[in-house]
Design goal:
The chain is of the alpha/beta class. The chain has helices at about 40-50, 85-100, 125-140, 160-170, 185-190, 195-210, 225-240, 255-265, 275-290, 310-315, 345-350, 365-375, 385-390, 395-400, 400-410, 425, 430, and strands at about 10-15, 15-20, 60-65, 115-120, 150-155, 175-180, 210-220, 245-250, 295, 300, 320-325, 330, 335-340, 355-360, 380-385, 410-415, 420. The protein folds into two domains: about 1-10 and about 365-445, Arc Repressor Mutant, subunit A (Orthogonal Bundle), CATH 1.10.10; about 30-315, tm_1862 like domain (pyruvate-formate lyase- activating enzyme). α7 links the parallel β7 (about 210-220) and β8 (about 245-250). Bound molecules: iron/sulfur cluster (SF4). Iron/sulfur cluster binds next to loops.
């Protein structure tokens, strides 16, 4: 059985080993999505009709749900079969949603601090489609003064012309979903790109001069081995990106791998156990630190001058973020919401100039405090004063029981100014977070 600290983790204990089973590990928000409901949608409309709140930073997330292939570990809603006409309908829906939002009083006169293109695969779009999208978005809300524009890419979709066009269009942070450098492992996990495409794309991205390139890796893909993982880290070091993000492989319900587990009537996922995945991440971090990187979160090592990640840092400090596109997540004035999660209803509602919201949740001040606390804990270090000043909460008092317990288990240390995760704590940061949830949210599924 999993210990109390590890509740909610997709772990199955077998012979003293923490085997990987189905479930979510990564926590991206709070309260859990299963508490968001359609009957709270009207609260978003009400919030958007209030006066703007210029002191709250504002960001924009744009969801591009198209991919060349569906990776076996993917749990996102992605489409691999949409033609150019359907993509155009989608882009028009996104632009209409942007127009509707930009016209609402709550956003009036506000500047976008950051823009993030996620997916799916934003780089699946052609240069013409990207130009159409970027220009249309900026007609509604200017990007003048926007400090960071991040863009997720799949290396096989990045032709040189597209890479240079992205730089021209103002992208400041290019994030490459490499995941693994080994051709057999990429194939085994049904990843669309091939190893040689990584180097071609990376080299062109460097020439194009993006201020920051991030590389995503996953520790524990199907077929991973000790030697191959070490090789992935060495290859990463040769490329020398400003940022390296390492995720631990998890198998959520909505994945091909889980379907295969069900078909084979297996509770165990065909990937490394959690101890091995943590060891791989830890060894990777050590190697990166030796090469001059510093750990900037439980997943990220950075090096050099251009290492800030405003999207993460602003969001984890309670920024407003409008999210446009199918199934996008947004937060405005303390209300969380998510858009329609199916393609046709999303496009149809947006085309009718409706806000295509599926479900929402109005957070209480206490939930907003917990949300920021658990998200900032993922950075590995939390400042007590920040919470005293912003929420009038002494976190050492409020969480004294949890902190004592987690400290005795070796996951963190604390002093009057900071709570700091140890390496062990960093390696399973998401598994620690439910300790700080309100009772009602303790065993909720993140779906
Ligand atoms: S590229 Fe990313 S979004 Fe697309 S199928 Fe693979 S994991 Fe999912």
């Amino acid at each position: 059985m999993a210990s109390d600290t590890e509740r909610n983790l997709p772990i199955l204990e077998v012979d003293g080993k923490q085997k990987t089973t189905v479930g979510n590990y990564f926590i991206s928000n709070y309260p859990p999505y299963s508490f968001w409901t359609a009957d709270q949608r009207h609260l978003v409309e009400t919030q958007l009709d209030t006066d703007p709140s210029p002191e709250t930073p504002l960001g924009l997330y744009v969801h591009i749900p198209f991919c060349r292939k569906r990776c076996d570990f993917c749990y996102f809603k992605v489409y691999t079969d949409k033609n150019a006409e359907q993509i155009r309908r989608y882009l028009d829906a996104v632009l209409e949603e942007m127009r509707q939002l930009a016209a609402r009083p709550y956003l009036r006169g506000r500047k976008l601090e950051f823009v993030y293109f996620g997916g799916g695969t934003p780089s699946y779009l052609s240069v013409d489609q990207l130009q159409y999208l970027f220009e249309g978005l900026q007609e509604s809300l200017s990007w003048e003064g926007t400090r960071e524009i991040s863009f997720e890419c799949e290396p096989g979709t990045l032709q040189e012309k597209k890479i240079f066009a992205l730089r021209e269009m103002g992208i400041t942070r290019l994030s490459l979903g490499i995941e693994n450098f080994n051709p057999e492992i990429l194939e085994l996990n049904n990843r669309a790109h091939r190893a040689k495409e990584i180097f071609r794309a990376y080299e062109a991205a460097q020439r194009a001069g993006f201020p920051q390139i991030n590389i995503d890796l996953i520790a524990g893909m199907v077929g991973e081995t000790d030697d191959n993982w070490r090789d992935c880290i060495e290859q990463t070091l040769k490329l020398a990106p400003e940022s390296v993000t390492i995720y631990q492989m998890e198998i959520p319900y909505n994945t091909t791998i889980y379907q295969q587990m069900k078909d084979g009537k297996s509770l165990l996922a065909p990937v490394a156990d959690w101890d091995t995945k943590r060891l791989w991440v830890s060894e990777g971090f050590d190697r990166l630190i030796d090469a001059g990187y510093v750990l900037s979160s439980a997943y990220t090592a950075t090096k050099g001058e251009n290492t800030s990640f405003l999207y993460r840092d602003a969001l984890w400090r309670g920024a407003d973020m409008i999210g446009i596109g199918v199934s996008s997540i947004a937060h405005v004035g303390g209300i969380h919401y998510q858009n329609e999660h199916k393609f046709d209803p999303y496009v149809e509602r947006a085309a009718k100039s409706e806000l295509p919201i599926w479900r929402a949740y109005a957070t209480t001040p206490d939930e907003r405090f917990i949300r920021e606390f658990i998200l900032q804990l993922k950075l590995g270090r939390v400042e007590c004063d920040y919470f005293r000043q912003k929420f009038d909460v002494d976190i050492l008092d409020r969480f004294s029981q949890q902190l004592t317990k987690l400290e005795s288990e070796g996951f963190l240390t604390h002093d009057p100014q900071h709570i700091t995760l140890t390496r062990d704590g960093l390696l399973q940061a998401d598994g620690l977070l439910p300790n700080f949830f309100l009772e009602a949210h303790q065993d909720a599924r993140y779906a």
